[in-house]
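Trying the structure run again after the queue cleared.
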Amino acid sequence: MLNHKQCDAFFAVAETGSFDLAAACLCITASAVTLRVQSLEKTLGHLLIVRERPCRVTQAGQSLLHYLQHARLL
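Done. Tokens:
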């Protein structure tokens, strides 16, 4: 099941290209963003974000973004 906080963290990283910037947007720590994204990846069984600078969304991540946008979960 998708968790709203995990989805928010994933979306913020996808939008900003950075775990640090995502954390600032969400008013949480970068490590909390990392844990939320990792937990979402574990739940879905797919890597969603490539951890480099800037971060990149994988194909699975693009599919999730599309789903979340159309499901109006964000």
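Residues 19 and 34 are 7 Å apart (CA to CA). Worth checking whether this holds up in the mutant runs.
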